[in-house]
Amino acid sequence: MKRFSVIFATVCAGLLVTLAVATPASAHTSLIDVTPEEGSTVAAGDALTLTFSADLLTIGAEATVTDSAGTVSPLDVSFPTPASAQMVLPDLAGGAVLVAWRVVANDGHPVEGALTFDVQVPTTTSASAPTTASTPTPTPSAIAVVTAVTSPPPTASTPPTDDVGSGSAGFPVALWFAIAAAMLAFGVVMLARKRRP
């Protein structure tokens, strides 16, 4: 019986070590840097660069920008480095804009999010300005800007979710049952030998 206890403790220790090693490996890719910084002022033609904690796949990437007028424009996504994605801003109405993006990590998991920026549209003046006071050009109301920013960005296809039935940190449930069955059978055999005259 003492030998059975030692074997059982050894098996449990091995499982704990396996789970400890597998858990860090299951961490998902995440966004670690944005250039220019979120909330800064941008203009048409500026490139937004998103840097991630691990390499990306060059398929399945999507991005859109919604300007203060509520116009949604798709953005082309390029990959200047294996761990970064880049998109160039088109002509946009002045004010707050929302950039929604979605990329696929090297392990197949989708990563998505949204960033806000402020677009500064250069003002143009007429060469032959009249001497009389001109009527001021109306600017977009604050209500329109807030509405455009808070409106939900176009959603991409629902990303695949992790299989919650696969056990902790990707350890198959079937293997758990197999180990439990083996341990139970071992215990029955040991008890039968102990009772044998």
Brief overview:
This protein has 197 residues and is an alpha+beta fold. The chain has 3 helices and 9 strands; from the N terminus they run αβββββββββαα.
Supply the key terms.
197 residues, alpha+beta, Immunoglobulin-like, five-stranded mixed β-sheet, 28% helix, 29% strand, rod-shaped
- CA distance, first residue to last residue: 16 Å
What's the pLDDT, averaged over the residues? 74
Helix-strand pattern: HEEEEEEEEEHH
- CATH top level assignment of the largest domain: Mainly Beta
- What shape does the CA trace take? rod-shaped
Strand residues, percent: 25-35%
Main beta sheet: 5 strands, mixed
In angstroms, what is the radius of gyration? 29 Å
Give the number of DSSP strands: 9
What name does the CATH topology of the largest domain carry? Answer: Immunoglobulin-like
Helix share of residues? 25-40%
Strand arrangement within the widest β-sheet reads 2-9-8-4-5
Query: What is the CATH architecture annotation of the largest domain?
Result: Sandwich
Low-confidence stretches: 11-26, 142-150, 156-170
> How many domain modules?
2
What does this structure look like?
The protein is α+β, with helices and mostly antiparallel strands. The protein has two domains: 2-17 and 170-195; 31-121 and 140-154, Immunoglobulin-like, CATH 2.60.40.1220. Helix content is 28%, strand content 29%. The chain has helices at 2-25, 142-150, 173-195, and strands at residues 31-35, 41-42, 47-52, 56-66, 72-74, 78-81, 84-88, 95-105, 110-119. The strands form two sheets. Strands 2-9-8-4-5 form a five-stranded mixed beta sheet, with helices on one face. The two termini are 16 Å apart.
